[in-house]
Structure formats: structure tokens, C-alpha cells
């Protein structure tokens, strides 16, 4: 069952509109997370909201929003005053423009969302808007209010639904020139460039995100298993020395080609390489003696094959 929608409203293209539901396309809830605790009692640490001057705890109903106009000076705003800023995009994503997908600067992308029709009546209108974008090969740009802020959103066909990605505003994007201008212009020798291109070719492949491995997460899970089993943990070792500066770049490129050739990675199908992403409860301390169903099935098949071979030999 899909999680509850994050936002409900309408998708509007000119005079065509339909009811839609919007849900986050990503989640970080599966990551290992830690709570702050009292090391002596093992109890969780809780925080109280207090007045910065009096030190008194402030009840929830007295906490409001304030815009800082000067040092320790705030212009207090009530929620109803902010909600008075009525925008059409509060309940509607109105498509303003269609642009080629490739034209959108990747720096502007923020958070992705899945968009689906929210009732049977609007399915036809939703489908015609989606299929029109597929036919023209374009992305729609619209506006939506989330968390009381209006955001520009890029909408593109994604399977049977739409993928909406909120975009940053220009004032949120830092200028690349501020970081790149100090990089000196260097002329690279053609033969050196060819060696580098050869290394790139050796590492070429398909984009397969299901093969991504979070090595830190796996290491933390192993530590937690040992901790639960009361196995002594090693203390952090010294960090490995930083790589030495390359003295002869050409030699380093040649050695890199040799090293990559020696690895000769077998390009197995993605189906064989896929790993099931286990949840935290599955990863921590599996019951001893139990084997995965696939492993048990394989062993049963092997035993059956051996028995058949013995009967045939007899």
C-alpha cells in the first residue's frame, strides 16, 4: 500500500484540470540512525523550548514566528497573517510553460515527488496531459505551495504517472565562477589525454543504481551486530596516509591502465548483481541456524540431483 499523500490539489493546463495527489519519491527512513542518550542511565535526552532571556520553558501555544529586524529584535507574525497571502498555487499546480528536458540546469533540481490522479473522474484529463508531454518530448513548469512556500516544479512523464521535482530559485544557486575562476588553464599533451581517455573507456558501463552499495551503512550494521552480541569492538585506527602527489603523470596513467586491465571485471547481468536492500530489523542479529529460503532451495536441489545420479549409476 502506498503511503499517504504529502499534498493534494489540482493539476491545471489552460481550461483542463484534474485532482492529483503528490508523494515524496525518496525516503531516508531506512538509514541507520542514532538517538542522543544519557550514557550512565541509557535514557533518551529530551529538549525543552525555553525563553532565551528568562530561561523559562515556553508552552507550544505561545511559540510563534518572528522575523529578525535587528540584534535580538523580532517582528512577530501570526499564522493567520501569513496565511492571508493567498496564492492560486496553494491548491493548484498550474502549468505555465513547457520546455525541453535537457534545458533544465541540474543545479536547480531539489526534491522529487510522484504525482498520480486522485480520483477516477480526473484520470482521463491526467492521461491526456501526460501523453501530450510524451508526444512532444517536453517537461512542464508549474508552481505549487508546500510548507507555506511557493516553489516552481518541473513535471515530466514517468511511467503511468508524473514525476514532479521542486526547483530552486536563482537566488538559491551559488555562482560557479566563485569556485572555478581560480583553477588555472593547463594545456594537456595529446598522448597523455589519450591514455586518460583509455582509462575512461575501461570503466564505462550502464547506469545501474541498484548496484550502489552504502559501505558505511554496512559497516555500521556489522558493528551493531557485534555490540549486541557483546563482542569486543576495535578502537578507531589511525587514518591512512593521504595519497602522495603524482610526480610523473604519464607514468601514473600507464600504471592505471595496467591496474584496470588486471582487474578485468566480468560484466555480469544486472539481474545477477542485484542485492536486496534489507531493512534494519532484518540486518541486525539474524536467528542462528536459519538459512535464507533461496539457499535452502538450492541445497535441496543439489541433494535431489545427487540422489538421481546415484540411482542412475546403480
Commentary on this structure:
The protein has 314 residues and is α+β, with helices and mostly antiparallel strands. Among the domains are: 7-28 and 85-172, Ku70, Chain: A, Domain 2 (Beta Barrel), CATH 2.40.290; 213-233 and 277-301, no CATH class. It has helices at residues 79-83, 123-136, 177-180, 190-202, 215-228, 249-263, 270-273, 280-283, 293-313, and strands at residues 7-13, 16-24, 65-70, 73-77, 92-100, 109-117, 138-146, 149-158, 161-167. The strands form two sheets. It has a seven-stranded mixed beta barrel with strand order 1-2-6-9-8-7-5. It has a two-stranded antiparallel ribbon with strand order 3-4. A hairpin with a 2-residue loop joins β7 and β8 (149-158). α4 runs parallel beside α6 (249-263). The longest helix is centred in the C-terminal third of the chain and has 21 residues, at 293-313. The radius of gyration is 29 Å and the shape is extended. The model is unreliable at 266-281 and 285-314 (pLDDT under 50).
Topology:
Layout lengths: L6 E7 L2 E9 L40 E6 L2 E5 L1 H5 L8 E9 L8 E9 L5 H14 L1 E9 L2 E10 L2 E7 L9 H4 L9 H13 L12 H14 L20 H15 L6 H4 L6 H4 L9 H21 L1
Helix pairs in contact: 4-6
Number of strands: 9
Percent range of helical residues: 25-40%
CATH topology of one domain: Ku70, Chain: A, Domain 2
Approximate strand percentage: 15-25%
Low-confidence stretches: 266-281, 285-314
Q: How would you state the average pLDDT, rounded? A: 81
Largest sheet: 7 strands, mixed, barrel
Radius of gyration: 29 Å
- State the order of secondary-structure elements, H for helix, E for strand: EEEEHEEHEEEHHHHHHH
Strand line-up in the sheet with most strands? 1-2-6-9-8-7-5
Amino acid at each position: 500500500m502506498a503511503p499517504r499523500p504529502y499534498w493534494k490539489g489540482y493539476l491545471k493546463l489552460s481550461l483542463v484540470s484534474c485532482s492529483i495527489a503528490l508523494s515524496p519519491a525518496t525516503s531516508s527512513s531506512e538509514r541507520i540512525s542514532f538517538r542522543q542518550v544519557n550514557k550512565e542511565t541509557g535514557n533518551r535526552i529530551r529538549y525543552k523550548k525555553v525563553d532565551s532571556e528568562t530561561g523559562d520553558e515556553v508552552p507550544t501555544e505561545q511559540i510563534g514566528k518572528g522575523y529578525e529586524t535587528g540584534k535580538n529584535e523580532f517582528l512577530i507574525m501570526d499564522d493567520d497573517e501569513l496565511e492571508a497571502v493567498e496564492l492560486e498555487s496553494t491548491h493548484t499546480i498550474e502549468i505555465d510553460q513547457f520546455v525541453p528536458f535537457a534545458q533544465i540546469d541540474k543545479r536547480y533540481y531539489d526534491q522529487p515527488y510522484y504525482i498520480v490522479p486522485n480520483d477516477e473522474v480526473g484520470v482521463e484529463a491526467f492521461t491526456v496531459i501526460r501523453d501530450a508531454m510524451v508526444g512532444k518530448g517536453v517537461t512542464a513548469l508549474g508552481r505549487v505551495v508546500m510548507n507555506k512556500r511557493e516553489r516552481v516544479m518541473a513535471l515530466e512523464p514517468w511511467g503511468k504517472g508524473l514525476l514532479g521535482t521542486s526547483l530552486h530559485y536563482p537566488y538559491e544557486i551559488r555562482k560557479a565562477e566563485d569556485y572555478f575562476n581560480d583553477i588555472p588553464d593547463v594545456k594537456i599533451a595529446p598522448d597523455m589525454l589519450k591514455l586518460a581517455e583509455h582509462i575512461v573507456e575501461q570503466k564505462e558501463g550502464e547506469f545501474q543504481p541498484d548496484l550502489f552499495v552504502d559501505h558505511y551503512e554496512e559497516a555500521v550494521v556489522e558493528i551493531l551486530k557485534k555490540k549486541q552480541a557483546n563482542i569486543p569492538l576495535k578502537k578507531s585506527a589511525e587514518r591512512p596516509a593521504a595519497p602522495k602527489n603524482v610526480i610523473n603523470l604519464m607514468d601514473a596513467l600507464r600504471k592505471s591502465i595496467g591496474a584496470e586491465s588486471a582487474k578485468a571485471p566480468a560484466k555480469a547481468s544486472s539481474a545477477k548483481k542485484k542485492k536486496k536492500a534489507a531493512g534494519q530489523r532484518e540486518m541486525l542479529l539474524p536467528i542462528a541456524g536459519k538459512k535464507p529460503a533461496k539457499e535452502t532451495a538450492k541445497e535441496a536441489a543439489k541433494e535431489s540431483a545427487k540422489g538421481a545420479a546415484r540411482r542412475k549409476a546403480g
